[in-house]
Each structure stands twice: as structure tokens, then as C-alpha cells.
Amino acid sequence: MVDKVLYRNAGETKQYTPITASAGAGDAGKIPALGSDGKLDPSMYDPGADPSEPITASEAIGAGKFYNRFADGGVLKARLADNSNARPAHGFVRESVAADAEGTGYPLDSVNDALTGLTVGTNYYLGTAGGVLAAPLDATDAANTGKIDQKLGMAKSATELVTDDYDYVVL
């Protein structure tokens, strides 16, 4: 049940029921309300608000893995991001994408909710094969020379990493 709000109209106080779904321009200026699931109805969103992007995987990319965009014969493709071979993360997938298949990618600056085993409040960094590390690479360790140190974001739950588009450093 949607809570009603009070408003003044022509000198009178009236009750108004906010809308839980939008019919488009005719609902401009109306007050929105959360639905029974506690979320705004998708009809209230800007159609451009979906941050997903179509990707073509050059190799299999598992759910929750981070990908790197690259040009392959003039075609933009996605492959596993990897701190050991100059492949910084540009985004991630929530569902697995097979090699040479189309899939849906999500850019950094969104939530990767296809992970497991994260520790709330811990910052995570790019690992190998699209994975994550709970600690940054040690710049003083000679074994890390030439690797990418890229912070990806902070865990808000055991399965959700709030990513940000941080710059990376080549050690």
C-alpha cells in the first residue's frame, strides 16, 4: 500500500497518492513511490540509465569475472582482464559468456553482484584471469615488475563489489 502525502491546491489541503508506475509524459511532475518490492518501477527510469553494454567475448568469461576491451581486426572484443599481462579491467559480466559469443557487460562504476567470498568493507584489486585480490600488489617486490596494480572497489556484502573506475599503475 502506498503512503499518501498531503498537498495544497487552491487553498485546500488534499491527500495525494504517489504513482508506482509511469505511463510516460502524462505523468510528468507526479511524485513516485516505491513498489511492493521496495524498488522504483523500471517505467520510472531514464531509458539510458542501464549501464550494461553488449560485448563479444574472444574467450570464455565466467560470471563475476572482469574483462578487458581490445581491438581484434578492427572489432572491439572482450577478454579476461589480468594484472600479469597488461590487461586492465574495463568492466565485468554477471552471467558467463562463451568464447566468440555475445553477452552483456557492465562498466566499472556499477555493482558486480556475481562474486562470492568477499569481506565487507575490504578493497579489492585486479588479480589474474579476471579475478580479484584482497590486497594491492607490493611495488617493492621484483616479481611484480610489469604487472598492473588496479583497485576495483569495495565489498558491500559477501557477493557484491561496488566498483569504481580507478586508474591503474604498471609496476
TrEMBL record:
Top-level lineage group: Bacteria
Source species: Stenotrophomonas pictorum JCM 9942
Name the record gives this protein: Uncharacterized protein
